[in-house]
Amino acid sequence: MLTIRQRLSYLFGSTKGLILVAVAMIGLETALFGMLSGPMAELGVRDWIVRSLGMQLLPAEREGRIIILYHTIAMGVIAIETYIITALLKMKTFLRTAVRTLITVGYLVAMISGMGFAYWGHNWALHGLYIAGLTLIFFAGVLLCIALWPWDRAYFVTTKAYAHTRNGVDLERVAFFTTALTTVISALFGAVPGAYFGNGFRVFLAENIIRLPEKTGFQYAVIGHLHIMLALIAIMLTLIIGRWLDFKGILHKIAMPLFILGTLVLNLGVWGVVTPLEPIAHMIIYVGATPAMLGALMLVIYGWDELIREGSQGFVKPNAIQKLRALLHDPLRFGPLWQMVFMNFTVSGVGIFVAVRLDEIFRQWPAREERLILTGHWHVLSGIIATIILLYYGDMIGLKGLVRRLYGWGVIVFSDLAFAAVTVYELKRLVVSESAQQSLVNTVLLLTDIGLGTVLVILALILVWRLLDLFRRQGRWAEEAQQSDPALEVKA
Amino acid sequence: MRHVQFSSICEMIPRLTWGLFCLLGLLGLSACRSSVAEASVLSVDTSIDPEAWVVIPAGPFLAGQFNDQVTLTHSYTIMVTDVTVEQYTRFLNQALADGFVKIEADQLVGFYPGDPFHGAKHEEAISPKNYPFVPLNDPASPFTFDGKIFAPRSGLSNHPMTNVSWFGAWGYCRYYGYRLPTGLEWEKAARGIDGRPYPWGWDLTKANANFYASGDPFEDMRTYGSGTTPVGFYNGETYAGFATLDSPSPYGLYDMAGNVWQWVSDITPGMHYRFMRGGSKDSYPPDLRVWVTNNATPSYYGPGTGFRCVREP
């Protein structure tokens, strides 16, 4: 009994344990429900899964199922980010415990009961629990904002290497606070129309209504909500990576105001879609996105410069190849920053290209082709966010030597292979006609499957290793459970 | 030493990644080859008559994804199958001869009287002028043209006409005194009155319809991909070892899900796009649900888009 209690205490009481549970839950959910579409459906695996598990999948309820699926996965990711934030940043112990407790119960209840409701018949008790889970996560977000309050003197900066105001207010903490606060408000921005559409179960996927010339305020709110939530998850993760890499110096001082300004303007633009500002909302969003992305660029420059400096310390005057080797030496620290750069080719670049040439090119295609770009590019963004978390997690759990390199490069190379292939798939009509596309489609889908499949196998190996470790009396889990300083918990 | 070698390999990985991306680009270029039009097509007589029409009575039915109660106050007659290549090439020959259509550059065009323009965001004006009906030199087209006569490609005469724009579909119907169905007319004809998601009932199998990777004898996913099936192919018969289920709609229409998207007549104010229904040979199963719509500019044509007509009873 004591043994089980010790394990549970590790899994639900320590930062690394909580992250392990969340990664495992998301991994299991992705693996199971990923088999209901794509190549698994074509191979007949979907039918077997549906029959074996007794799922009840009515055709008219597909959109509702997918919306719950996306939300439950997103809640797991938000929980992971929250665990890391509450470990990395100073805050009152009570608030840290409260936030973690609420969000853990919240995402687990939302995930289990939400998926139960969506895929195994409409049991209304499960639906109620799903909503209750989401509500707990919302309150965790409110408490997190309170915990992050940056104008408390206890959190003022003590070293001038970090961005701060003249009074000493930590601007990085302001950036975290701003992102958390706008995330909570943007959650409400989705919850209100969600309650309206969900109440009558007249759900829709945003990508299916993009060409309608007239949209209701609630429809705009749903479209805005899904865009801003993913953007905020990405911005928060960028801030987390910055803290992990001890981002500081002049670039930090430039980047933090950019993040704060960018996040605020980005949110104002998105919220503006339900106001008379709607005609210029996109312009405001671009204005907000630019400084936020510039902030991320500062982090990349800082992080890579640090890697090069550390890795080439043995050389008096390192040449370009030595610098490149130093940069690529540690995939787990190089990777998250590289993924941010890579995102520009597969997400931001595609988005800007589509926006600029929308009427000339993309709106000349059938809506289903345009929808591929929309769904493809945000799936890629979600995937990139997941890989950055996995790379950080690999460092956090202390992967070393060969395993560290294999894990790191495996995640980077195979995920990027998949994301690049998906990008080609989305934009294939630029280079190939409908009637001649099959060879290209086969190739890119194969590369996508190889890429995603390998990343999932790598993740599965890590999870199995950690699962087996839990059966050892003095495994890594016991060591990790001993760590008492939250900030050290999320470091190797 | 081993560690050093491994480091070198690891450092090569990003370069290898870029190499793979370049390879992707090359594959894209090399993919611009084999198409369904170049493949030899199995000839199948389904015994479903493309000249047949059926009356859809006036009255209520359950429409859309959420089964809204809708009443159509008029009855109408609709074609049992999509317009076939045989029927459309016959039209082209007649219409070209009497001046209803004419050749302009590499396409066949016809006059369309235009739509009201509202100046909405992304809206393009559809003014009165000639618009493309079908392209003349597209290898994906299911017909041939020798400069004088249009004829179906070998084996495709009883396949649905494809590579036809909305204008081309509208023109065909108008030429014979018919019209394109509205979305609601199309949907009632497809699902009847009981709210079913598919024309034949409540579940979709590979034996019901032609969709992406559905395994019919007209598809080869390794080369040209998915091809159209002859109209009425899913009639319960077995062709080339492929057993179909008889899958008509409650009113006896065939191919109301899969095979080709079907143009409908709806014009939404502020929107120049035209809608299509039913999903196609290239669609994943969710797009075969009867309420799903697709849309495109009216001059768009593709190898997965066709139509059928309605007329007054």
Automatic annotation (TrEMBL), chain A:
It comes from the Bacteria. Coiled coil: none annotated. The keyword Membrane applies. Keywords: Membrane, Transmembrane, Transmembrane helix. The chain crosses the membrane at residues 17-36, 67-89, 101-122, 128-151, 174-198, 218-242, 254-274, 280-304, 337-356, 376-394, 406-425, 445-468. This is Cytochrome oxidase subunit I profile domain-containing protein.
